[in-house]
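=== Structure Prediction Worksheet ===
Name of assembly: unnamed complex
Input type: mixed (protein and possibly other molecules)
Chain count: two
Listed entries:
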Amino acid sequence: MSIFHFTTPVTDEDIKKVHIGDVIYLTGEIVTGRDDVHHRVVVSGKEPPVDLKGKAIFHAGPIMKKISAEGEEDKYKVISVGPTTSMRMEKAEAEFLAATGTKIIIGKGGMGPKTTKGCVDNCAIHTIFPGGCAVVAAEECVETEGVEWLDLGMPEAMWKLRVEEFGPLVVSIDSYGDNLIENNKVEFEKKKQAALESLKGKLDYMS
Amino acid sequence: MSCDSQVVERLSGLVSSFICHSAGHLPDDVKTRLAQMKEVETEGFAPSIYDVMQKNMEMADKLGRPSCQDTGLPQFFAKVGTGFPYLEEIEPALIEAVKKATVEAPLRHNAVEVFDEVNTGNNVARRIPWIDWELVPGSDKLELYFYMAGGGCSLPGFAKVLMPLEGYDGIAKAVFDHMTTYGVNACPPCLVGIGIAGSAEVAAKLSKKALLRPVGSHNDNPKAAQMEKDIEDGLNSVGLGPGGFGGKLSVMGVNIEQAARHPATLAVGMSTACWAHRRAGIIISPDFTYDFFTHKGVTL
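=== Predicted Assembly ===
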């Protein structure tokens, strides 16, 4: 396992250095986007209002607080922002990477074969921020630079966040097509079969 | 009968504070279990994930913030004493409390109207907050549970009706299948709630009520208690670890609740709670004094 410190825009060269199980701390600009953003970009074919080239898409629906006074330009602060279940975006992520030039996906849990191929084709990676750790993540967001598509609602909008040493981001899919969580699931499946086997006879309450 | 607006205000103020506190603080039993699990998980990614979890709990407390951004779809489980004097006021107070806490905690806007597909922006919508009612004869108190049903930990949930010959092994298999697939994404280590009954909706509801029982508690039927332990040990042997990164353990525990079944059906329901299991319980007396029993020593 190696530890990397990257700054956006992240290059193909950076991405090629990392493998599953490595850890990244990211500085620069990340943008939140989950179900509705992926739907708009991939299914509805809308041009994303944010340039994502070399940046990270963060599967997250944050709690934001408006801190600007009445009449001032809107300004927001991140209160709580942890990763959401990445697998929900499996259907659209490969196309999203191709359409936007995003280099790093940040979420939780694994993603499937379609995204894995998308990472290979677009020289991108999927990473996992520890789930449920939303205040740690919020404090690593040093500034909210703006918001787009707020009509989707607070959790679904694209929040542009400036981050410093954002992580730990565990690389779960690399640009070589390796998938950490899918590998784990193969192990889990084997152990599951053994566990069910050893339960046999113990739960026979009907006899 | 008419609703006393002063009572609604007082009750909603108390319940709102109760919600706000529970958004940022895990209950005592969950904190204890996580600390025990952290001691066991000494290899691979697990220790560093537990370190971030610990840091997050401390920061949420220090900064007074919701510990997870997904503050869930609000659900109440009310056990109402038949002698509780404010029956008219409970429901309006709970709805008001959710609106208030949404601003004050603040909670994320999580209520999306079905068909209209509009987020109402205040966590109040059709049948939301969800309120489950039980009557308690001979009591003059209101025992209230609040549960933040997050998206990630709601995804593994299911209910299905098995044929009796599939047996309790069939229940175990269904639970294991869901936990080793969807469970990986549900912020493990999870608490697993299993309901067993005669039809799907009863099993599903009991599976959620099972999650309201403390971590480490046991079913009062010795066979059910043994099944809780057997499934817990079996799931732990799979070693999902924190976040699904692998480890020595998988779950905080397994709680089973049951209702009698039909001779021809064996229904199973499963609900999961993520490690950030924000369940809060309070007993409110007619004079508004309270026992915040899931978070001992906390003054609201």
